[in-house]
Amino acid sequence: MTRRKKTRTGGPLAPRKQPKMPGSQSSALELGKKKGKGKASGSRHSAGKSQQSVSAEKTIQDQRKGSKKPISLMPTNNAIKSDELTPERELQALENDQRLQMLLQRIEDEQTLTSAEQAYVDEKAERYEQLAAQLGIELDDDDWDDEE
């Protein structure tokens, strides 16, 4: 048997197609160029950027960069005064220092201190004496021993 070539026609039993009207809109769209999707190829690498995109990039700023306001690296006189404690407050802070009180209690109980702990006690005791002398407070260790 000889070979028969296949056709796309549906044969005698297939429904008939409608003839195309030359003036209809649907035929104009079918014959015209199809609308593309997305940007044209190579648009990312094109050298000429539009002015709108360049200005849009300048207006949109990355908020993670932070403020551009210059900051002085040297402290001003106002900053120094606000950070310093008055001698009365510093003396009170030394009296309320929990670590210092704990270490002094260990010294009274005749326990040994590490070199770092001993240096801390010495530093705070020296500062306490300086503040007491500055404020005119007399520290008499003999009076305390007699009362006990």
TrEMBL record:
User: What are the GO BP annotations of this UniProt entry?
Assistant: ribosome biogenesis
One example of the protein's molecular function in GO is: GTPase activator activity
| Start and end residues of each stretch annotated as Disordered | 1-88
Q: Which domain of life is it from?
A: Bacteria
Q: Where is the signal peptide?
A: none
Q: Reply yes or no: does the keyword S-adenosyl-L-methionine apply.
A: no
- What Pfam families does its record include? YihI
Q: Where is the composition biased (Low complexity)?
A: 40-50
Q: Does the keyword Signal apply?
A: no
Record's protein name? Der GTPase activator
> Which organism is this protein's natural source?
Idiomarina xiamenensis 10-D-4
